[in-house]
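Our working data are protein records whose layout never changes between entries. The record below serves as our worked example for the rest of this section:
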Amino acid sequence: MKKTIYLDNAATTKTSLAVVEAMLPYFSEFYGNASTVYSLGNESKRAMNEARDNIAAVLGAKSEEIYFTAGGSESDNWALKATAEAYKSKGNHIITSKIEHHAILHTCEWLEKQGFEVTYLDVDENGKVRPEDLKNAIRPTTILISVMFANNEIGTIEPIREIGEIAHENGILFHTDAVQAFGQVPINVDELHIDMLSASGHKLNGPKGIGFLYIRKGVKIRSFVHGGAQERKRRAGTENIPGIVGLGVAAKYAAESMQERTAKEIELRDYLIKRIMDEVPHTKLNGHPQDRLPNNANFCFRFIEGESLLIMLDMEGICGSSGSACTSGSLDPSHVLLAIGLPHEIAHGSLRLTLSEETTKEDIDFTVDKIKDIVAKLRSMSPLYEDFVKKSEK
């Protein structure tokens, strides 16, 4: 049986055995509803509060500022829609960036249809928001700034401290989508002036279908899901106790292992980048060369289609992803790659590889060797590459 080399950890991660083991009792042994008063329900409530404490500790937040959701997309929707509703008497202007996850961009598009105005900030060639552009975009009617902590495609870490300071100085709420960053880089919500933060369990070896929204005490936003009085009357629905327990364990482990784990990822990531850039010609590294997530490497290979590369890598047992959305029925390449200034024909040849603590140097060597062979094969069938070679020889 062919070995699987999983290098798509930005899409989802494997739920760790420790997380699974922690969750199991809450399916069939401690299965009580946390809203009940008897001891079986009290055990569920206790476990939920422990998970809340673990997550708050990672962020330097208070436990009562953590609200559990079904994942990052719900958290993003809640932060934007509820803020728009709660603060519309103050203004109707929101600022975000052009490289946000679609959970933010599509929510902003929906808000525009409700009469809100949205400014989509440009980014530089490395995918960074310019603080000066943010300052210039602020209006008297601006009520919210939402900029992701780190980009899910190219890995660039945004200047969150500067953004938070600008928001704070202007009395504007600041939300960050930290789905990719939580558990991968240190985050302190007070030091960074973050008022709301979204995260998701399945990006840090936790379970799918669980996430949270950090809401700073004093931020007056209402429920997004209406019904019962769960989550201190801010998020109705019987709590997903197994998922919450798993998220709490994953968050605690991510914090405790962060320094050693990410040091290893950075070493392997940089080795991967060096080999690709040295050995595969006509290749571009996307994202900031230093200020990037520890496990992220994103490339564009000229004269090929990213989807073909992905399919051929899969045949070799290698899982990666492409910045192009062609596989989902769109003919347009990634909005992120276009935002950093790449032309369509180059953006279509993208490949994102995201590592985990289980990734080995042997995995990287095998992957790079296969990429070299596959790219050469695809280019040999490309009329564009043939024309390029002929022109270069003249």
Observations:
- Residues 241-279 form the longest helix (39 residues).
- The longest strand covers residues 296-301.
- Residues 296 and 354 are 5 Å apart (CA to CA).
